[in-house]
Amino acid sequence: MEETLNAAGNLEQQALNDAGSQEQETGGQRRKKIWQIKSGYYCSVIGTCLSRVDLKQIARKKIFSLSSGLDAFSVHRVLSTIASDRLPKTRALNKILDTKHRAAIKRYMLLDGDDDLVRAEWEKDLRSGGGISGAYWAIMSMASCGRDLLDQVYGDCHMVSYDIFSSYSSSAKITASLRRQIETLQRSLEKTKTTYQKERECVRWELGELQKSKGEFLRQRLVSERLVKENKELKADLERERDKQRSSVLFDELELLKKENDSMKEELQFSTKTSKIHVDQFENSEGKARELEEEVIAVRVMAAELQEEIVSLEQMFQLGMGSKSVCDSCEEKVEKSCTGVGLSGKAVLYVGGRYNMIAHYRDMVEKNGGIFLHHDGGKESSRSLLPKMLSGADAVLCPVDCISHDACKCVKKICKRNSKPFVMMRSSGLSSLARGLETIIQ
């Protein structure tokens, strides 16, 4: 590490020695090309302003004549080496940087000529963490930017890279844990899908059996109606034949028909009961199918929330949000007299949430310059303690998925009465906490 710092110091000194000659080379143009920038800044410009994805895309371009199998560091080293030469390769590299960061260039060009305004805008981007790469290229390519300002911007960017590296381990552990949770949920989803398919096939089979029973029932009903009709006709014939002395034969036939009719009625009643049983079984199967579909939807929603949590954490890592806060050792933070960045020493009360995430909540609040307070929302901590903690808090955060109804009503009432900032978060995840803190800071 000491050799690296010495090398960085030598490069910085070389950049300062080259300042005079390069200022003459830029002449009256408003922006410098990459080969006109101080040679000691090439490594930081390439590393800060181009991502790993950008480096892989550059390696595939024919103009750079690089092997597609090179890793990101090898491409970085080649670009840093050729940056000082005025070649077609460096012109293409300069165009790539201008195209990627055109918005930041346009914003900083409005401030060109006034180092104080440029310095203020840079510090604003540095605090937010969202536009450091674009701002760094815009400032380094300014023709009129002063040496002191360039040194300050280079030094700030240099130290931010160390802060990000130091926080890589903890962020990587959290990301790996969340990925394992997603894999577990995906396996559970596949099992649920398999069960759902089996139940669905069973329902289809039962539906087919029900259709068969229904067809048999209709056939039996038609037979019964036909027999009833024939019975009526025979009764009419019997009445007509009474006067012709054939009543005895007709009465015998009528008795036989009555017996057959009674038998068909019994069969009809049995078919009706069987059909009703099949209908009930079909309705029960439909209810099971709906319950399985609801479980599948719930698992998918949970998987989507965890995926969003991973994306948010990866973005927080790339922007340096997981780095060690400069406020941790500041005495003004404890005294609530800080006027600096982030939460400025505010006491943030987190009501509810998951117990195994409290350490992560505390770490995020403190690294944003705040003082973390926690109440579990009425699960274990005394509810009478909640109003006292609310009176000592500057802002309150509540996740709607992990807090009791009574605690939520109490927080809303007291915050409204005392005009305290109050943020209801969609979930108890770290991404929701990050957005809540951003709301309080703004």
Walk me through this protein's architecture:
By secondary structure, the chain is mainly alpha-helical. It folds into 3 domains: 2-166, no CATH class; 170-318; 331-441, Response regulator (Rossmann fold), CATH 3.40.50.2300. Helices cover 70% and strands 4% of the residues. The chain has a 4-stranded parallel sheet, with helices on both faces. The longest helix is centred in the middle third of the chain and has 75 residues, at 168-242. The protein is elongated and about 135 Å long.
Estimated helix fraction: over 70%
Read across the widest sheet, the strand sequence of neighbours is: 2-1-3-4
Largest sheet: 4 strands, parallel
* Low-confidence sequence ranges: 1-28, 317-326
C-alpha-based Rg, rounded = 39 Å
Distance between the termini: 38 Å
Count the DSSP helices.
17
| Quaternary structure type | single chain
The H-and-E topology, N to C, reads as: HHHHHHHHHHHHHEHEHEHEH
Please indicate the count of domains: 3
**Strand share of the residues?**
under 5%
Secondary-structure content class: mainly alpha
Q: Mean pLDDT across all residues, rounded?
A: 79
Give the CA-based shape.
Answer: elongated
Number of strands: 4
